[in-house]
């Protein structure tokens, strides 16, 4: 099978589209997964006080 | 500085220096009579100087500190100071380049000082020298803090920092000698490129190993941006620099690509250098230092995740907007254009997230120039991404391409966003690292802020005007269908704006010099911060990790 312009553009236009849609759905689900909310909040606050050295 | 390495680590460092010295010697001998020979001499000298530093420490007693109780900040400190040095050099070069465009006599008739040679010294000096060192230094800081873990290794952070600077020096000195592979932002030749791959892979491994030691369940979002910066830059750098050296004893090489493939590969690299060097890395800074300085968590952590993936996956596709109306297939241009417009969404989500974080802390922005640096940086980030998405539309690009409008866009991003967020981060981290109460002079920070802002605004407005005038003059026809203006006419029209740009740049440079002075004086003269009750000391002296009297 030759790597022609036709082939690459078909792959980019079909597979490229679907994998990006799948990714965006996956990421949105991850970001808004309810049970992860606490973990994200903790992470967001964790940087405010982190000078007390490694491992606490 | 090397006193904090253990005996075994000092030996490894020494071995690396010796290997480097041999490499330098071989390059100098084999490349004799070619710029590669001069680069060999530079490598040899750099290895020699590093050896001296290591040798000074080699007989010292083993370090007494307890490595499990504090962070390893020496490489961060060195990196910040080096970044400021490059800021002054790179921006000084920028002012010179700008002045040459206004007054061409300032070339002084030497070969090395011609526009084509000092321009890449400016671009590499500010992007890699200033930006790169600031990114490496702050990434060491952020990866340790957010993971609550010490750097995984004590030699490798030095190897990465110093090795990267060797690359920068080889690059800059090469341009002055006329070495270039004529790919913008990737000008250095094959041996420098190979060296950067080694350094960069070490950097990546160091980062991953530090994260693997983390004591936090979740990896804070700033790390994702830094990691994207490291990983994608490695990928871009390797592919775009694939080349066959004409000879192993000389600098010249030939790219593996040709024609329109070469152009597309170059701008796939070029725009992602903008995306992952000048944007992703600095967003990592923003997501750590802005909330920290404002003492408020980021407005929406969830939004920061969404915009991260949006930025990463959209940016990869937009390189072709640099090649509108070229031999590149139309659909590839359209693809780049479409993704550029979509890119506005995650970009503004990031800028908005930063500004919303400041909601409720505006009094701090008013009083604290450091936070103001970061706030204005977020605004310029929003501005330049909006402008970029607009310029990527083919019809707009037909006016803006080849004109100073592009240069104006570049510096709205580079000065307004990249440099300002970096200065803000430097001002917030320097007192902390050197355990000072504050910066030596807050008035100088205030001065720097206004100089930088004025410089950026003057620069950008001058280039917008100049670019649009230039673009319109190029496309004005007379009744008989010929061009109304000659190229020289456009040069005359642009002259006042070039003078204005040089002045704006000089203001910006003055600010950077003030920053370097202020940081130096902070290290030297600012009062030490009294350790709070159980503040971890650096336990350099044989102090117990926990104060005995508690
Ligand atoms: C003191 C401030 C600065 C001055 C006076 C200055 C001046 C200049 C000049 C005169 C050019 C050449 C434009 C041309 O060829 O027509 C240029 C290009 C460039 N500068 Fe700066 N600059 C400054 C700061 C910065 C900073 C802080 C950065 C990056 C962080 C930066 C990144 C660039 C880049 C990427 C280009 C290439 C633009 C292109 O090819 O379109 N500059 N600069
Ligand atoms: C959504 C984000 C952005 C988009 C869609 C975008 C788009 C563009 C476009 C269309 C051009 C002109 C290409 C040409 O006509 O040759 C350009 C040039 C450039 N942009 Fe952006 N831009 C964005 C953000 C940024 C940011 C944040 C920075 C910097 C810090 C930046 C730095 C540059 C540089 C350095 C160039 C000049 C490249 C060269 O010709 O040497 N861009 N950008």
- Report the total helices of chain A: 2
Mean pLDDT of chain A: 85
CATH 4th-level superfamily of the largest domain in chain B: Cytochrome c oxidase-like, subunit I domain
- Spans where pLDDT lies below 50 across 5 or more residues of chain B: 539-550
Beta percentage of chain B is under 5%
**How would you spell out the order of helices and strands of chain B?**
HHHHHHHEEHHHHHHHHH
Query: How much helix is in the residues of chain A?
Result: 55-70%
Largest sheet of chain B: 2 strands, antiparallel
Shape assignment of chain B: globular
Strand content of chain A: under 5%
How many distinct beta strands of chain A? 0
Cα gyration radius of chain B (Å)? 24 Å
Largest interface: A-B, 28 and 38 residues
Write the CATH fold name of the largest domain in chain B: Cytochrome C Oxidase, Chain A
By oligomeric state, this entry counts as heterodimer
Radius of gyration of chain A: 21 Å
Number of strands of chain B: 2
Secondary-structure-derived class of chain B = mainly alpha
Largest sheet of chain A: none
């Amino acid at each position: 099978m030759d790597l022609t312009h036709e082939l690459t553009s078909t792959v980019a236009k079909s597979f490229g589209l679907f994998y990006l849609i799948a990714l965006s759905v996956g990421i949105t689900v991850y970001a808004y997964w309810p049970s992860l909310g606490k973990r994200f909040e903790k992470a967001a606050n964790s940087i405010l006080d982190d000078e007390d050295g490694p491992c606490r | 500085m090397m006193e904090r390495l253990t005996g075994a680590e000092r030996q490894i460092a020494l071995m690396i220096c010796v290997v480097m010295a041999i490499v330098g010697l071989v390059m100098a001998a084999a490349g004799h009579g070619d710029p590669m020979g001069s680069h060999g001499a530079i490598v040899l000298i750099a290895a020699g100087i590093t050896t001296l530093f290591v040798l000074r420490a080699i007989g010292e007693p083993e370090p007494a500190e307890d490595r499990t109780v504090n962070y390893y900040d020496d490489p961060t400190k060195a990196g910040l100071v080096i970044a400021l040095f490059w800021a002054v050099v790179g921006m000084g070069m920028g002012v010179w380049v700008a002045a040459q465009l206004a007054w061409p006599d300032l070339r002084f008739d030497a070969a090395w000082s011609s526009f084509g040679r000092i321009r890449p010294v400016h671009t590499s000096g500010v992007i890699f020298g200033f930006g790169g060192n600031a990114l490496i230094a702050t990434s060491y800081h952020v990866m340790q803090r957010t993971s609550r873990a010490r750097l995984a290794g004590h030699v490798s952070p030095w190897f990465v920092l110093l090795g990267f600077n060797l690359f920068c020096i080889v690059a800059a000195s090469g341009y002055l000698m006329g070495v270039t592979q004529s790919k913008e932002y990737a000008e250095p030749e094959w041996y420098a490129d190979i060296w950067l791959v080694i350094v960069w892979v070490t950097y990546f491994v160091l980062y991953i190993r530090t994260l693997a030691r983390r004591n936090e369940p979740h990896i804070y979002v700033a790390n994702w941006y830094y990691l994207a910066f490291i990983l994608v830059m490695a990928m871009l750098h390797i592919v775009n620099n694939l080349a066959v050296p004409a000879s192993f004893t000389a600098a010249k090489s030939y790219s593996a690509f040709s024609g329109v493939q070469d152009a597309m590969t170059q701008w796939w690299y070029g725009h992602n250098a903008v995306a992952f060097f000048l944007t992703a890395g600095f967003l990592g800074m923003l997501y750590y230092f802005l909330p920290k300085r404002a003492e408020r968590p980021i407005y929406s952590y969830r939004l920061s995740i969404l915009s991260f993936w949006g930025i990463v996956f959209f940016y990869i596709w937009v390189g072709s907007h640099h090649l509108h109306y070229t031999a590149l297939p139309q659909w590839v241009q359209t693809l780049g254009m479409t993704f550029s417009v979509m890119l506005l969404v995650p970009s503004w989500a990031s800028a908005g997230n930063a500004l919303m974080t400041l909601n409720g802390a505006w009094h701090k922005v008013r009083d604290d120039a450091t936070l103001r640096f970061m706030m204005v940086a977020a605004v310029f980030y929003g501005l330049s991404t909006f402008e970029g998405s607009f310029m990527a539309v083919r019809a707009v690009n037909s006016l803006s391409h080849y004109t100073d409008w592009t240069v104006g866009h570049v510096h709205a991003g580079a000065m307004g966003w990249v440099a300002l967020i970096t200065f803000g981060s430097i001002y917030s981290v320097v007192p902390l690292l050197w355990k000072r109460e504050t910066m030596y002079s807050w008035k100088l920070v205030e001065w720097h802020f206004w100089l930088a802002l004025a410089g950026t605004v003057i620069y950008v407005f001058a280039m917008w005007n100049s670019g649009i005038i230039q673009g319109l003059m190029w496309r004005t026809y007379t009744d008989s269908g010929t061009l109304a203006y000659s190229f020289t006419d456009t040069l005359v029209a642009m002259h006042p704006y070039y003078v204005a740009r040089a002045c704006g740049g000089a203001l910006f440079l003055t600010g950077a010099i003030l920053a370097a002075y202020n940081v130096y004086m902070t290290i030297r003269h600012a009062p030490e911060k009294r350790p709070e009750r159980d503040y971890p000391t650096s336990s350099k002296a044989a102090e117990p990790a926990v104060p005995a009297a508690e």
